[in-house]
Every structure is written in structure tokens, then in C-alpha cells.
# Entry
Amino acid sequence: MSNKIQAIAAREVVSVIRARSTLALLMGVVLVTFGIVFVSNAEPDYLPTAVDLLLPMEFLVPAVAVALGYRTIISDSTRGELDVLATYPLSVSRYIIGVFIGRAIALTVLLTVPLVIIGIYLATTSPDAPTFLATHQGVDSPLIFVRFIGLTVIFGLVVLAMTIAASALASTQRSALVLGLVVLALVVIGLDLLILRGVAGGTVADGWLTTVLSVSPTSAYRGLVFETVLSTAVQTDLQQASPIMSTVGLLLWLIGSLAVATVAVSRR
Amino acid sequence: MTTVGALATSNAVRYAVIFVCLVGFAGVAVSFAVDTDTAEPEPVPFDEATTAGIASEAQYGLEERGQVVPRAQIFYSQYQFIVGYHGVEHAIDSLQQDGHQQQFGYPVTIYVSDFSESDLSLSEEGYLETDDEQPWVDAEEAAFVIESDARTPTGHTAVPFSDQSEAEDFVSTYGGEVVDWEILQQHSFDIDDATVVRDGVTDLKQSADASVEEHRSLSDRPVSVIIGDGNASVVEEANLSVADGDLKFMETIQEGLDHAPEETTVFVSNGIYEENPTIDRSVTLAGPDATVIGNGNGSVIEINAKGVAVTGLSISGVGENTDPPEEGATEVPEHDERSNGAEGEDEVDGADENSDWDERVEAGYGHGDAGIAAVETTTVYIDDVDITTPTNGVLLRDVDTSVVENVDIDGHEQWTEGFMGVMAMRSPTVIQDSTITDGRDSIYLHRSHETVIRNNTLTDNRFGIHFMHTSDSLIADNTVFGQESAGITIMTDPAGNAVVGNDVRNATAGILPAGSRSYIAENVVVDNERGISTGASNSLYERNVVYGNDMGFRASSIRPSNRVVENDIINNDVPADPSTGPLLIWTHEGVGNYWDGAVVRPGQERYSPSDPVESGLLTTPGAVTLSASPAATTLDALRDTTPGMREGNIIDTAPLSEPVNPEIIAELEEEYDE
Amino acid sequence: MSESQAVSKADSETVLVSEQLSQSYGSVSVLSEVSVTIDSGSLTAVVGPNGSGKTTLLKTLAGLLSPAEGAVQYLGPDAEREIGYLPQRPSFRPQFSTLETLEFYTALVDDDPEELLSRVGLRDAADRRVEALSGGMTRLLGLAQATVGNPPVVVLDEPGSGLDPTMRKRTFEVAHELANDGTAVICSSHDLALVEQWADHVIVLDGGSVVDTGSPAELCRAHGAESLWEVFDVTIEKPDDQVAVLGVDDE
# Structure
């Protein structure tokens, strides 16, 4: 049975591989990440590199996810292939899951390969140090970077799911692009702006901030990075984010988006 | 079956993908589950740690006498070097500083010296005495004795024991109480810091004034002998009195010196005298218009007695020798209660001159020919003397107290050939109101603690003022110009020096301090290649005007420990260079420095002079725009929250909007504007 | 007149039934009260002028549209894929070859992609990418796709459209073969000659309603026509040179 999901997913993966824009997307990721790490003055340590990459990732990852996802369902739809697929013993949910998995594999590869290369570079370079002085590693460890890569991929997957939902809701290619951009803007800035507004206006009480932050996927991602990656360097009692709420928030966005997409497609 | 078909249907592919995903997922899950704290590192040999605490000179002194200081070494989470502390109290104090965690991260592991197995006693001053070596013990497992009689040169200390009962034994003999690491971390130790040095400047000035007064009285001695053509009227002209008994008249200075009773003045009338007089008794040699020309062999005037003054002479014909006498002939000063008169808190009195390092320096610098040489004596006064010399001008070695004022020394034009203007070795002194030109170093000090050097004009040397192993001294209000290497340099590892109010220009390095707990303030440093280096640690650099240098400030310590505030840093090609080192925060309690490049933008309050964008704010078009971009500002903010993130960077979190010394700056701008 | 071989009545049974089917887009009525019966092993052709609602009827019969009123019932045997569908303008992912495209569909329902390609005559185009296919070849691919998994019912919307006469004939031959194998084939077409030749059953649709239905011979007899064309001419209302646009000429 899962063969069908595999078929759908394989189709998506091959489509991405054969699309002309994919190479450009990969180049974009490589340019930004390598640019940050190699060109800027970043220390060749895991933690400073993660810090330097965090903000660019908040823009880059949603951009890549939207680019990968906004045309998935709408193109099947306008081509009429959705109708054709409807005649096959393929449930809508399996279709959506298959599409998501296929694009998710592509997204994971696009994000992971450059970051892993950076990780290997970090593992093999060490900062200049006077050799007469003893050094130790502090709390800089590859595990920190692995966490960062993991969280970044998860963030990308959530935005991908949101974009697929947007694609499912759209009725034309054009409106799919628009909706995709809306998702992008919302994720990258909009939700956070709303939260900022809420805090400034007093509607978000201090105690609720970490919970409310998890509503925005970007802030949830950022919060998780703070708490699990950056906090290893600092001992504070002040929580930067609630890891549990952030994870829950991200999961809800992921599952909810896929659910929305399923409903949208089955209503066509 | 095409590849696509295979991908779409093959079981193998499906399982492979699932497998890879599971592995990836597991890997990520593990990375979250595992505690990133590395296993506790083992302690390192102490000389491989970058150190802080008492001065190394004091350290050597202690070691020689079998005395020790409880040490600590800390592994910080975000600082790659292990930091060693001479004195556990320094470690505690350091951890309590503002911004410490931001620069170093938190302490991952701390080891302290374990005195459990050591045979301990306390010296008179309270220093720990033992011949045993102390192993390391984890601080969290140690018991500490505080508020006992135990001290280090900088104050009270905490003595760690791995065995609590040993700690309690110590308390029963030496007082104090036993606490654990947690309580110890909250304890506040009274450690002298650079602000103490700042407060001490007035005291130093006052004691210098007193010393000058005292020494000046030597020039009031009544005249007993007149040398040369002068008659009795010169006495009155010189505002002096005649001694009891008859005035004698002699031909040569040496004759006069040999015949003058103690506590009188030998007056040299106008003229040229070709001799190398030696002063063996407590007399004053005065000659306002006399010229003494030596035979070019050895020093011209040698002072071997105490209470001797030389005033008014012009001296030349100094020998060219800078080497010590042959092997074995070096006089070894006796062990006695000889102290350098310096009872600084963190250096040990010089009862032990037999150490190797001291011998080497003495051999290198302490035996050259000089215009006036005073050795192994006390209370020497030199006033209003002109010296032309290819080697030293004035040489003081083991002179307990002395004052050198109003002298004019001309050294060798090639500094590589010349030697010191005033050389003071183990001779605390006051050098003031003098002019020294050419030669190697204008003023060179070795172990001459509590010296005051003020109001001198020093020009065209290698170093204007050169300190070696000299602590607790004051360099104030000097004008230092055109130095080949550095205007004012303090070397080795002394403590407690103050460099205040000097004007240093046209050197390669303006002020180059080293050591610790130094006070560098209110200097005007202009047109040098490098203005001020922050080489002294735990020091205070404030209210300096650093103008028109190639590089204004240069941060040059591996450990961030200095306070650099309220300086005016203007018109330098590079305002401040962090070299390699951790983050430096040049703000204290909300007060930073005045930078001409710190354009304060709305919402942007911090300034990073070392940031390539921010340091170019005044010179690079578009830099202001870029630095205000959301990307730049949020990246900045993010980096500041995480320690160790801004290696090789200087930040001022509250740059001043008005300069601290506007009048001086206005003058400089007028002077230097094209 | 029909060259089709009559399928023995005993083998055929009703596989699809529509009962008073009505469909509308907004306020425009597209189908009204259409009732048809589709038997297995037969080729049913829906004919009518442009805009008469053929596509809508086919889509509704294929289960892709829900009727506003009435019902469509599948009465055929249980199968993984019950109804196959060829849209009026078939389109596939351009970067895939024809074989890969069919491999994808046969991953959803078991079948032999190479055999399917051969059946529609595309064996030599197996490795050609969809973006490089002519319109006719794409339509053949679509035809192959419609039969993936051997569904008991196959719905073909204008399968011959855009094909040259030989290909168009081939299409009908394939459809006929399918019917011979027991499949209920429903198609729409403008080629009345081929319909006359191959269809077992014809439904004449005009303005959303069934005007008449029966085998080609029956229809000719009923309307006193020599050919299906004549039947068409007689039964269809001809508005003055204008194409019928549903909703504009209200009846």
C-alpha cells in the first residue's frame, strides 16, 4: 500500500531533480551559507557558526521551502492530472503525504548537504592559537551543530507543509504563487510582527510570551535554537523559549497544513 | 523499467530511504539527548595557562623564599584557553565582574591548589610557607579557609583543602572559617585594583614632594671650600653661607672634596676642570658655571658616600664603556634588611639580589659609564646639571633615596650607540623638570619601585621611559616626543604603575604598558603609529585623548580584564584594533568612550570600532546605511547575547556623545588641520 | 452497417447507470435529467454539438463531478480501479518520458507499462519526454493511461480529437478491442462516421438533454436517416449559424 506513497513521492523527487530551477536553488543555499561561514569573520567553531547562520536561515529556509512547494498541487490541478489521479485507488491523504514526502526529501537534501559540508569544514579546522598555551574545547561540540541542522530542516519541513496547503487552496498558478508569497511573508515576518504588536499593546502578558512565540514557526524555530543550541554557552535561569511549546507549535503547523491540503484537494 | 519506475516501485529504494531517514532522525535525536557538557577536563600544568593575579616579579620573589600562593585554574565554556589565577581570591573576584560571563561563558571546571598534604606555616606577612607541591583538586569538592591570617601580596586569600579536617586544623591555628565553593563564590575579597592606583597618585605626588624638599636641603649646606678662581663673594652670589672655620681655596675639585668637612658645600667657580672627581663623604658639590670634563674613561663624577648633592655643573668627557667589570668582580650586595624603600603591597623587598635574573639585567645595564654615578649609597641629590654623554647621563645603582631635577642630558645621536639618560637600578627616585635628548632610553628603571617621574621633556630616543620590573610608580606630566620604539613602555610584569597626564607624540608606539593593575589616564597621545596598547591587565585606561594616530588603541592582552572608558578617540586611521583575543567590552557602568566614528543611530546604541563596517563609518560611503540595516543590527544583537561569539572584537555599549576633553581636542584640531 | 461484432447479450450486464442526472454551473443548467445505461463489453458514444454538455456528462459518469440532482451508480465488478478517464485535453508532467509516466500510473494500479504503450502504438516513443510529444501522441498516452489497471469502465473524452484519420481510426479500434474484452467504453466524438462504424450504442445530447439513444442502426431507422449524420441533422436544433451557448438561448 505504501507503494503508492512511494510512487507519488518518487514522482516529486524526480520532478525536482529534473526542474531547471533546482540547481539555482541549491546555488542560492550554498552561496548564502558558505558566504556567511567562509567570507565573514566567523570563528571556525560550531557555536559561533550556528549563531551567524541563524538569522540568514530564518529568511533562506522559508524561501527555499516556498520555492519548492508552491507549484506542487496547483500544477497537477491545472493540468487536469488531479482529475485523472482521482480515478485511481489513491486516497487524497496518501496523495498529499506522498507529495509532502517527495518535496521534503528534496528540501532536506538542499539544506543538509551545504550545512554538513560546513560541519566537516568546522571539524577539520581549528582556530589559531598560541601553541604554548593549553586549550580546551569548552562546550563547543559537533553535537551543537547537529542540533542546529536538525532544527533547521524541521523548520523547513513545516514551511513546506504550509506552502503545499497554500498550493492546494489556490485555483490558478498565479494565485498559487501569490499564496506562496503570503505564506513566506507571514512566516518570516508577519506572525512575529503580530506578536510584537501584542506585546507592545499589552495583550500578550509576560508569562504568556514563550507560549505565544511558539505560534510563529519562525519564532518557534529561533526559540528552539536559543534553548538547545545557544544556551549551552550561557547558564541563565531565564528561558528564552519554551522548547515544548515550540515543538508543539511546529508540529501543529505541520500536521494542520497537511490536513488543510487534504481537505482542499478532496473538495475539488 | 526506467530509474523513475524503479524509484517509484522498488522495495529496496523504499527501505533505503526509510533507513536513511531513521538514521538521520536518530542522529538528531541523540544530539538533543546527549548533554553537550564535555567530560571534565584534566588540570593543566600551570605555566600553560594564561595567568592573572599577582605580578610575576612578586611571584619569583615568593618562590625563592619557599612561599606559595593558592592557585586556581578555570576552564570556561566559551574561552579556549585555560585561565590560571595566582591567588584564588583573584579567580573569585574575576567571576564576580560584570560582563565576565559574556566574555568567557560560564566556568565548566575549576581546579584549585590542594594544601591538604602540605606542611604549612605562615610567614610574618602571612604568606603561606611550604616546601611541598600542591596537587589540584576540583573546587566543588574543596573546603576553603577564608578570613584567616593567610595573605598573598594583594590581600587576603582563601586556602583550599581537599580534606575538611585539615582545613579546620588550619583555622584553629590561624583563624578564619571554613566554607565550601558555593559560599566562597559569594564572598567578596578586597583586592586592590587599578582604582586604588588612581587614588594613590596623590599620595605618590605628595611623598615625592616631601622627598624633593628633603633632598633640596642638601644644597643649602654652607660652603667650606672654593675651587678655582673664585673668591669669597661667590658664596653670597650663590645665596649660601660660609661654614664655620676658614674658607679654603683649592685648585682641583678632587682636592676640595678630600678636604671639605662633611655637611658642607664644595663650591666650584667658573671654569673648566679636567678631572674625574670621586665624592667619598657627605658633601655638596656645587658649580653653577663650572664645567667638568672627564678623561673619557669611566664615569666623570662618582658618588660613594651618602647624603651627597651635585648641583649646577656641566659635565662631559664621559667614558664609552657599557660593560660590567670582569667575572667575579661584580660586587654582591650583602644580605641585610636592605629594602628598596619600596613597601608596595605586591612586591617583595629586595633582600635577595642573588637571583639569576637580576644579575643578568644588572650586568647588561647597571655598570655603564655615566656623567654622575652613585652606587650603593643613599640620599643623593642632583640638580641643575648639564651632561653630554655617549653612554649614561646619571646612573643610580642601589641608591636608597635620590632626587634628580632640572638636569639636561644630551645622549648619543645614534641610539644604538648610546645608553641611558638616567638609569636607576634598585634605586627608587624622583626625576623631574629635566630635559633628556638622544641616547638610548631617556629614563630606564629596574626594580626601582615607587619612583616618581614628572614634568620632564624626553626627545628622540628608543624609549622615552623604560620600566623593567618596577611597580607602584608614577609617570606624570612628561612630554615625550619622537621616540623610535615607544614613548612610555612598561615591560615585564609589574603592578600598580600610574601613567598620567603625559603628552606623547611621534613615536612608533605611544604608551606601551605591561603588567597589571595599572592606571593610564589623561594622557594626550598624538600622531604615533600606535597610540595606546592595553597590554597591562586588570588596569584602568581613562580620559586619554588619542588623536591622529595610525592606530588609536591596540588591545593586546589575551585575557579581557581592562576597563577602557571615557577616552576621546579621534581622527585615527584605525580607532581600535582588537588583535586576536576574545570579546572586549569597553564600557563600565553605562559609560563608554567618545569615538569620532560612533554615529549614533536611532535604536542603535552600541558601537564596535573593530567592526569593518562600523569602523569605516566616517570614511566609507554607504557604511552608515549598511550598518543600520536590519540584518546588521539584529545580527549584532544576536551576537552580543552569546559569549565567545565576537572573538577579535571591541564593543562599546554606551559610546559618549560628547568628548571628555573638548578643549584639548580643539587645540589639536587647530594644530593639525591642514 | 455496424462492423462491430455483436457481443452476446448473455455476457453483458449494466455496469453504470445514471438516473435523472442534472448538473449546473452556477445558474446555468448544463445537464438536465439525463438517464443513461451503460453495459459491459459495449462501446457507447455520446454525440452532440459543441457545448451540449458532453464533457460534463462524461466527467459526471466518471465520478469526477457530483451531480446537482440525480445519481450515478457503478454496478460493475469490484476492481481496484473502477473507472478509467481520458480528459479532453490530456496533459502530463513534461519532464517525464512516456514510459516513465506510465510506470508511475502502473505503480498506483498494477499493469504493464510497456504493453500499454504498445497497445496504443507508442512503443517507439517510450523514451521520449512528454514535452516533446505532439498533441496526437499525448492523446495516445492519455488513452493508454485511461486503461491502466484494466478498469471495467473507461471514459474517453474526444479520444480522436487532433489525430490524423489513421490514428483516429486506430483509437476507435483500440476502444472496440477494449469493449470486446468486456470493458464498458464510453466516449464522445465528433467523428460520426467512425461512431457509426464502431459504436454499439449512441447517445445524442443537445443542450444538456438526451435527444435520443440507441444503436446506430436503430437511430437511423427511427429517424428515417441513411446515416448518423442525417440523424444528427434531424435531431439537433440548429440555431442560426451560431454555436449554441448554454444559458444564452433559453428554451
Remarks:
- Residues 11-33 of chain B form the longest helix (23 residues).
- Chain B touches chain A through 50 residues (CB under 8 Å).
